[in-house]
Design brief:
By secondary structure, chain A is mainly alpha-helical. Chain A is 72% helix and 6% strand. Chain A contains 20 helices and six strands. The longest helix of chain A is centred in the middle third of the chain and has 36 residues, at 215-250. Chain B is built from three helices and no strands. Chain B has helices spanning 2-38, 48-54, 59-63. The chains are: A mainly alpha, B mainly alpha. Chain A binds chain B through residues 1-3, 6, 77, 81, 84-85, 87-89, 164-167, 327, 330-331, 334-335, 357, 360, 364-366, 463, 466-470, 472, 475-476, and chain B through 36-38, 42-52, 54-61, 66-67, 75-81.
Chain lengths: 519, 81
């Protein structure tokens, strides 16, 4: 049997590092694109103020970028240290996009980010804009490859299990790259990053306007953030809907858990806007339903059902029984790889092998599992319903709030009336932490909703962990906590310091030609 | 002129010292991390047989001595029977 303490600690460590790393990713994505917009205006108009804006926001981008890099590397090491069986079982597929991310995207970003900071006086205007664009492109490419890897965990395609090597092996790279889950996740995540960058610029600019400082830069920055943010906030909702549809097709249990849909409703299913899911009684108390909405989101139709948790558990039960057949055949193949009867049996049931592996939590040999153990394993495929239910609803509510925030900002920007609406400036400033809350909740919905699987339907999470001593994992987890807390303090200190100083306090301000600043 | 040159040399020496100290510190930190978490003693080597054991596929057969190598029967550290 597996030591569950090690599994729990390893999961906690990965969750901590991933959630912490994801504080920096969305801002890097968003700010890099905002820098491209600001610098493009500078190149097109030749007005110095846009160059100063790009440089100022660029410094804040640089701090965030460095933190993102430092906190991202540790996760890749964990696949080797804490998740050795996972790395063996799926490394053939999962490793490829991660390696491409490093070689293609990160190298691109890392090369051009230096030129961005030190090339202002050495490159032509257009040359420097190309550099900034490359940084933004590198950030987005980085997100693309990471999300291709992640999407494969949600919806494993283009691979098959090899009984001889005891691992999943790649059969179609294009299927992995063009995985529909990856496409939906990529555009949704990147758009959410753009919203984060826009809220950051909007909030910091609002703070300047409230204090009557750096007015020219703050007003222009707010106008950029308002227009870019509005387009992106609308995109996030549309692309999130696409993500929901793709999950409805491929991860039915996740959708059922998010909706606390205990039983299959007659189509079109209604959406539970509010309620209190009770995991003991399988009832959602005080629920407020919106007719048809869930059916439209998850199936894009009025006549297809959205399966409820009870039906999906019954489906899992069947797959576990099929998986036991695959497991028994695999036992024989491990003894005699050339056994034709075992090969045939394994081929017939191998898609369900992962479901039999769920039984290893309850029994040493899945072929001897009792009906009660099969029932336990089947119900074990249900993720934590209340956590998913609430995380999703708070995320969606924040997404709708951002549309309202940016629409108001856009309306005020169009009328040049930022300065007269102090209430809005206060709201904009106080909204600063909200995109991070939404992004983290989105990550929780995606990853916690994948449980109990590391690779959906293929490898249960508890089987992927390395059999290292629990004390080692506890020690490194404590180390991460301490180190990341220190990094958080340094990061906030640097950001606040730069923002307090403002563009005036940085080395390249005041400009060498004061008359240029007025243009 | 000479004063400015002296100042520049002093600044460069100070920078060299700071960079050297930082690099030494970084190498020491990396060595400590390697020793604590990445040295051979901490590595989990997984091959097909290791994965089989993880999935309990070979447990019964190993106990009966069907598979080669008695060391394969030993559970890995962190696993309990």
């Amino acid at each position: 049997m597996i030591d569950t303490t090690v599994v729990t600690l390893s999961r906690a460590q990965f969750a901590l590092t991933a959630l912490y790393h994801f504080l920096f990713v969305p801002l890097t994505l968003g700010l890099s694109m905002i820098l491209v917009i600001m610098e493009s205006v500078y190149v097109m108009t030749g007005r110095e103020i846009w160059k100063r804006m790009t440089r100022f926001w660029g410094v804040l981008f640089g701090i965030n970028f460095a933190m993102g890099v430092a906190t991202g590397i540790t996760m890749e090491f964990q696949f080797g240290t804490n998740w050795a069986y996972y790395a063996h079982y799926v490394g053939d597929i999962f490793g490829a996009p991660l390696a491409i991310e490093g070689l293609m995207a990160f190298f691109l970003e890392a090369t051009f980010v230096g030129l961005f900071f030190f090339g202002w006086e050495r490159l032509s205007r257009v040359g420097h804009l190309v550099v900034t664009t490359m940084v933004a492109l590198g950030s987005s490419l980085s997100a693309l490859w990471i999300l291709i890897a992640n999407a494969w965990m949600q919806y494993p395609v283009g691979a098959h299990f090899n009984p001889e090597t005891m691992r999943m092996e790649l059969t179609s790279f294009s299927e992995v790259v063009f995985n529909p889950v990856a496409q939906a996740k990529f555009v949704h995540t990147v758009a959410a990053g753009y919203v984060t960058g826009s809220v950051f610029v909007l909030a910091v600019s609002a703070w300047y306007l409230l204090r009557g400082r750096n007015l020219d830069i703050a007003r222009r920055s707010m106008a950029v953030a308002a227009s870019f943010g509005l387009a992106c906030a609308l995109s996030v909702v549309v692309l999130g809907d696409e993500s929901g549809y793709v999950a409805g097709e491929n991860q039915k249990m996740k959708i059922a858990a998010i909706e606390a849909e205990w039983r299959t409703q007659s189509p079109p299913a209604s959406f539970t806007a509010f309620g209190f899911p009770d995991v003991q009684t399988h009832v959602t108390h005080f629920e407020v339903k919106i007719p048809w909405l869930l059916g439209l989101i998850a199936t894009r139709s009025l006549d297809k059902p959205v399966l409820g948790i009870a039906d999906l558990v019954a489906h899992a039960r069947t797959r576990i029984r099929n998986g036991i057949e695959a497991y028994a055949a695999l036992q024989e193949l491990r003894l005699d790889p050339s056994d034709p009867a075992a090969s045939e049996r394994f081929a017939a049931h191998q898609d369900d092998l992962g479901y039999a592996l769920l039984l290893l939590r309850y029994v040493k040999d899945p072929t001897t599992a009792t009906p009660r153990q099969i029932e336990q394993a089947a119900w074990g495929t249900v993720p934590n319903v209340p956590v998913l239910f609430w995380s999703f609803r708070v995320m969606v509510a924040l997404g709708l709030f951002f549309i309202l925030l940016f629409a108001t900002a856009f309306w005020l920007a169009a009328r040049h009336r930022f300065g007269e609406n102090r209430w809005f400036l206060h709201v904009a400033f106080l909204s600063l932490p909200l995109p991070w809350v939404a992004a983290e909740l989105g990550w929780i919905v995606a990853e916690y909703g994948r449980q109990p699987w590391a690779i959906d339907g293929v490898l249960p999470t508890f089987l992927g962990a390395s059999p290292v001593p629990a004390s080692s994992v506890a020690l490194s987890l404590a180390g991460f906590l301490l180190f990341y807390s220190a990094l958080a303090v340094v990061d906030v200190y640097l950001l606040v310091r730069i923002i307090r100083r403002g563009p005036d306090g940085l080395g390249y301000w005041p400009p060498q030609h004061p008359e240029a600043a007025a243009r | 002129m000479g004063g400015r040159q002296g100042e520049a040399t002093h600044w460069r020496d100070e920078l060299r010292r700071a960079v050297t100290a930082l690099i030494a510190l970084k190498i020491a930190a990396l060595a400590l991390l390697w020793w604590l978490f990445f040295s051979p003693a901490h590595r989990t080597e997984v091959d097909a047989d290791g994965a089989s054991r993880r999935l309990s596929l070979t447990q019964g057969q190993l106990q009966q001595g069907v598979l080669r190598g008695s060391s394969q029967a030993a559970p890995a550290a962190g696993e309990t029977e």
